[in-house]
Amino acid sequence: MKENQFEKMQKIVSTVVDILLGILVVIIIIVMGEALYSIVHEVIPLKSTESLYVLIEEVATLFILLEIILMLLRYVRDDHHIPVRYLVLISITAILRQLLLAHGGGLETLFLAGAILVLVIVLYILEHLRSFSKPEIVAKKVLEKIKAHEKEE
């Protein structure tokens, strides 16, 4: 009886989360539309170097918002699970945006580049761990090793 109540409560919470995420996606799409409107009306003429910086800032922001929408859609599609890979990719995009827009010193640029390097290494490690965790890939590698060993004999 308690399990049935727990399952009902879990479905209700899941539905509420999905609705809230849907509202969040709509809000993000509206913000993206506003940014596109701003780009077309205020930035595209590129009257000065400042407007070029604004264009780069707006485009970088659009990429981050797009990544967030894709992550939210994947979250709903994959039964409320976000792969760490998406979070790392969004972090890399955000740091790249900061790197493009930062007009700080060389040390700040070096730290941002180092942060990107660390995140890329994390992505590389995650991809290799993911390939080892899939049974079909592990089985395929084992079969390849067995066949290679049989050919040697």
Automatic annotation (TrEMBL):
Q: Which family does the UniProt entry place this protein in?
A: Belongs to the PsiE family.
**Bilayer-crossing regions:** 12-32, 52-72, 84-103, 109-126
Give the main location.
membrane
Tree of life domain: Bacteria
InterPro entries the UniProt entry points to:
P_starv_induced_PsiE, P_starv_induced_PsiE-like
Sorted alphabetically, the Gene Ontology BP terms of this entry are: cellular response to phosphate starvation
Name the GO cellular-component terms. Answer: plasma membrane
Asked if the keyword Transmembrane belongs to this entry, the reply reads yes
PANTHER family in UniProt: PROTEIN PSIE (PTHR37819)
Pfam families, per database record = PsiE
What is this protein's name?
Protein PsiE
Q: Which UniProt keywords apply?
A: Cell membrane, Membrane, Transmembrane, Transmembrane helix
Q: How does it sit in the membrane?
A: Multi-pass membrane protein
Q: Where in the cell is it found?
A: Cell inner membrane
